[in-house]
Specification:
By secondary structure, the protein is an all-alpha fold.
């Protein structure tokens, strides 16, 4: 492997942390699981066969580390998005930031009500911006299953957003 541990961590840690944080909703736990991901990756770097990109391979390890944590804690569910984390920094005015934060909060609250498969595919495809092929690799699915689950997940998310809007307005 040409890359050093430090280079690999610097290049991929933000994406891995973001993915894990969206699963566990706790900053410290996400940091620990990110470290666990890179520990596991370096322990098994010799088995990386370039079947997927390094980033996709690391996401799969992160998913397994996160699921292992949930299994240990007997918590197999998705937790909603944490307040103030990963907020959009492109909004220029404080009012814009508050509106975007509120929209993101509602989106992640709706996302947290969906089935685990729907959450996984939406997080990987739309939040982590993984390709269909990468998502299929991480989830151990076919590309066809990713596409069909994505369509159902979007429909379910849209329905939940409308339901929530109706309850609030």
């Amino acid at each position: 492997m040409e890359q050093s541990l430090e280079q690999l961590y610097l290049e991929h840690s933000n994406r891995i942390y973001r993915y894990i944080f969206l699963q566990v909703r706790q900053k410290e736990l996400a940091e620990d699981l990110t470290q666990e991901t890179f520990y596991r990756a370096f322990k098994s770097i010799h088995s990386f066969n370039k079947q997927a990109s390094m980033s996709t391979w690391l996401l799969k390890i992160a998913r397994n580390a996160t699921y292992d944590h949930f299994r240990r804690k007997r918590i197999i569910q998705f937790f909603g998005f944490g307040k103030g984390e990963l907020e959009d920094s492109n909004a220029s005015l404080p009012e814009d930031k508050l509106v975007k934060k509120d929209e993101a909060s509602r989106l992640y609250k709706a996302l947290s009500t969906l089935k685990k498969d729907h959450q996984d595919v939406l997080i990987l495809r739309k939040i982590n911006e993984s390709s269909i092929k990468e998502t299929a690799y991480v989830l151990g699915w076919t590309e066809t299953k990713v596409k069909s689950t994505m369509a159902r997940a979007f429909a379910a998310l849209k329905k939940e957003m409308y339901r929530m809007e109706g309850n609030n307005g």
